[in-house]
Amino acid sequence: MKKRKKMSLKIGIAGPVGSGKTSLIEALTNILKNKYKIGIVTNDIYTTEDANYLKQTLDLPDEQIIGVETGGCPHTAIRDDISMNQKAVQELEEKFNPDIIFVESGGDNLSATFSYELIDYYMYIIDTAQGADIPRKKGAGLLFSDLLVVNKTDLAPYVGVDLDSMQNDVKENRKNKPYVFISNKDEKTLNEVLEWIEALA
Ligand SMILES: Nc1nc2c(ncn2[C@@H]2O[C@H](COP(=O)(O)OP(=O)(O)OP(=O)(O)O)[C@@H](O)[C@H]2O)c(=O)[nH]1
Ligand SMILES: [Mg+2]
């Protein structure tokens, strides 16, 4: 394990419902866990479903995964009143001193963003099956996140999405900020996300 004297690197993952936030955390953790100590905080409105799923599928001690049940607007819990998430992050830091903590937002709409009081950097994840026009519709996460992830490229042909044209729209709206197109079903496409994380860790 890499030794860190400073606080954990906290990476937020926001994005619309079902875009692939939990699946991305699962895939990244499976690769990163051999080199870094990982902690995970998930947000769901009414349950701890995502945390329960990750506890079942990941080879991590259950205590390193905390499910926050926000009980209300998912924006609020990651941007305005971040106290529930801060408590979960602090618990992980005090007990395990993780190198990296992933904080998954509850599935939301295009206006979700993280407070930088809670995380150091955040990804915003959309997917091709939501339609090619999503990048043109903009939104704070899409424009300003530290990394934009366009997931489910494997589904593009089935939903009539032209990836080249979507890429042009993403490029135009992101200006100089980074973005990646990935498919969680194709592990090698995760490399750019891994490189982005490792450059910060
Ligand atoms: N075909 C395909 N399916 C994917 C991909 N990534 C995720 N999925 C599937 O999409 C569904 C939703 O993925 P999740 O990871 O649960 O999405 P999420 O953003 O965490 O969802 P919420 O937490 O409910 O907002 C699951 O059935 C995944 O298996 C991908 O790249 N390609
Ligand atoms: Mg999820």
Automatic annotation (TrEMBL):
Q: Which InterPro entries match?
A: CobW/HypB/UreG_nucleotide-bd, P-loop_NTPase, UreG
GO biological process terms, semicolon-separated: urea catabolic process
Please list the coiled coil stretches.
Answer: none
- Ranges for domain CobW/HypB/UreG nucleotide-binding come to 11-180
Pfam families referenced in this protein's UniProt entry, alphabetically: cobW
This entry's Gene Ontology molecular function terms read: GTP binding; GTPase activity; nickel cation binding
Q: Which UniProt keywords apply?
A: Chaperone, GTP-binding, Nickel insertion, Nucleotide-binding
Which family, according to UniProt?
Belongs to the SIMIBI class G3E GTPase family. UreG subfamily.
The record's listing under NCBIfam families reads:
ureG (TIGR00101)
What name is this protein filed under? Urease accessory protein UreG
